[in-house]
Amino acid sequence: MTHLIKYRRPNRIFLELFIPVAILCMLVISIGYFVYYRQTITILQEKQEQETLQKFRQQDSGLDKINDEIDKIFNILLNNLIFTNVDNVDLFSQLNRLSGLKEGERITRLKHILAQMDGILEGYSQLVSIDIYTSDQNIISCSEAGTFYDFSGMGDYPLYRNGTYQNVMGKENDWYLFGANPLGDISISSRDKYNQDTNVITWAHKLFDVKGGSQIGMICLSIQEDYISDSYRYIFDSKEADFYLADIQSGEIISSLKSQEIGQECPYITEIGESVYGNLSAESEGERINVLYYRLSSADWLAVSVYPYSGYQKDTVLFRRIFSIILAVTLVSLFVILLLAVRKIMRPVEKLMEAMAQVQEGNLEYKVAGNWKNEVGLLVSSYNSMAQSVKNLIIQKERVQQEKTQQEILALRAQINPHFMLNTLNTIKCMAVMARAENVENSIVIFGKYIEALFRVQKAFHTIREEIDFLKNYIKIYNMRFGEVVKLELDVEDELWEIQIPRIVLQPVVENSLQHAFDYSDSKNVIRIAVTQRGEQIELLLQDNGRGMSLERLMELRIMVSNHREESTGEHVGIANVARRLYLYYGEQQDMQIISNEMGTTVCIRISRKCLRDTAGK
């Protein structure tokens, strides 16, 4: 058993201390690492969003410049057509009337119109075609592939069929932008040269008759989609990110870094709604992505940037490596520090366990040596004090046992004396009866009752009635000695006569009054005893009308009573000893108060009612 205490328990305590602290520290550090890492990802994401917003605005500004350039080209072409006359008629006013002219006149005017359009194409390399669609469904087309016109009035062309022409004519006097169309669908002259993979973005504007103000058709200026995508390709140069422009009305992607996306539907149009700028999280091909969007002011388009969350993580690879090294070093250092700290704590505990093993073997002299300035040191100090107290207690117990043995021997001897004394008193009583000495006889009878109550009853408690009877005999004996100098007045509530109290608690108080309070030349000496119930307490009140105590002696007696100190000498030994006996029986459930002045002395004893037993069964 000693070995178990000495070795196994300290190891168990060591683990109980070390493992929870180590786990807690690792948990806190790991949570801190995770929070810091997530915060870093958030910062990188916010930085990416700010940079992307700047790029969006830059692209919006670039598109504004293209709009201005297209508007400039449109005005130049329009002016050239208006101010170029053939046979005293301007070319612009003839656009909607060419089908009604004779073949020769129509071809002459067409040559002049196409020459103006071709001149614009040569002057502005970004343009790939200029196309005029008239209200009577005739077409004039000019592109790098050549020229084309159709005056059949059939209107069997994509822009007439898909509603684009109607949208342009229904729009206010402003540009209508659309894309995701092959060049061959816009410019009829390019059908044979360009395949369906050549996508263009077209600016369309309706045309009015200069004189009448009526709508005569629309003009389309087209540029290759590559011209737009090249303008933002270097801005959004990232292997992970994707960027495209989507038409808000149709939801189609009209320009993209990935050409295969052109013409597809933007999957986030419905989620974006009317927001001008923002971001949302989505999932694409099983991977989480961050979608940033921006509504362009230069066109009814939406700029969309798609960036995978894995891209943010790649940006933190170096950070994760460095922090992982720091985390590993921190955990190892923490492990070593905790190990040393716990061992330092366990060292006095092990010594304490060793001391306990010594005590179990009966060696109370063994003390734990050491001076630790902490709680463990206080524990060790308390243990040393406890061991010394146990040793002192054992010594005291042995001494008490010896005293108890001596008291038992004395008690056996004392049992002989009362028996002999009572037999002797009975003999004297018989002699007094034979001699007809009634006073002597009465005195012996009263004294015999007093002695019998004092010695023969072995109980620690008796009733208030028995205590009062004992006290009456004591007063009678006293008055036989000094004459009728003391009068005893009693006031006991009827239901309290059978309450049990410790034996002989009133007699020492009465004896104190008889010895120190009264002048025996006066026959008006009165001792009043009242027993009443005050709430939850039983009150025993003893009053005399003697000369009282001095203030100094009163204070000294009150101190002895409050400290529950037993006195073996002095003038008021009985009162102090009664107070101590009551404290030993009832503890704090009792109280004794002493009041004394020139009118007499009052001793008031209060005992909690619940501590007293009633022999009447109440």
Automatic annotation (TrEMBL):
<dbReference type="InterPro" id="IPR003594">
    <property type="entry name" value="HATPase_dom"/>
</dbReference>
<keyword id="KW-1133">Transmembrane helix</keyword>
<feature type="coiled-coil region">
    <location>
        <begin position="383"/>
        <end position="415"/>
    </location>
</feature>
<dbReference type="GO" id="GO:0000155">
    <property type="term" value="F:phosphorelay sensor kinase activity"/>
</dbReference>
<dbReference type="InterPro" id="IPR003660">
    <property type="entry name" value="HAMP_dom"/>
</dbReference>
<feature type="transmembrane region" description="Helical">
    <location>
        <begin position="322"/>
        <end position="342"/>
    </location>
</feature>
<feature type="domain" description="HAMP">
    <location>
        <begin position="343"/>
        <end position="395"/>
    </location>
</feature>
<feature type="transmembrane region" description="Helical">
    <location>
        <begin position="12"/>
        <end position="36"/>
    </location>
</feature>
<keyword id="KW-0418">Kinase</keyword>
<keyword id="KW-0067">ATP-binding</keyword>
<keyword id="KW-0597">Phosphoprotein</keyword>
<keyword id="KW-0812">Transmembrane</keyword>
<keyword id="KW-0547">Nucleotide-binding</keyword>
<dbReference type="Pfam" id="PF00672">
    <property type="entry name" value="HAMP"/>
</dbReference>
<dbReference type="InterPro" id="IPR036890">
    <property type="entry name" value="HATPase_C_sf"/>
</dbReference>
<keyword id="KW-0175">Coiled coil</keyword>
<dbReference type="Pfam" id="PF06580">
    <property type="entry name" value="His_kinase"/>
</dbReference>
<dbReference type="InterPro" id="IPR050640">
    <property type="entry name" value="Bact_2-comp_sensor_kinase"/>
</dbReference>
<keyword id="KW-0808">Transferase</keyword>
<keyword id="KW-0902">Two-component regulatory system</keyword>
<keyword id="KW-1003">Cell membrane</keyword>
<dbReference type="GO" id="GO:0005886">
    <property type="term" value="C:plasma membrane"/>
</dbReference>
<keyword id="KW-0472">Membrane</keyword>
<dbReference type="GO" id="GO:0005524">
    <property type="term" value="F:ATP binding"/>
</dbReference>
<dbReference type="Pfam" id="PF02518">
    <property type="entry name" value="HATPase_c"/>
</dbReference>
<protein>
    <submittedName>
        <fullName>Histidine kinase/DNA gyrase B/HSP90-like ATPase</fullName>
    </submittedName>
</protein>
<dbReference type="InterPro" id="IPR010559">
    <property type="entry name" value="Sig_transdc_His_kin_internal"/>
</dbReference>
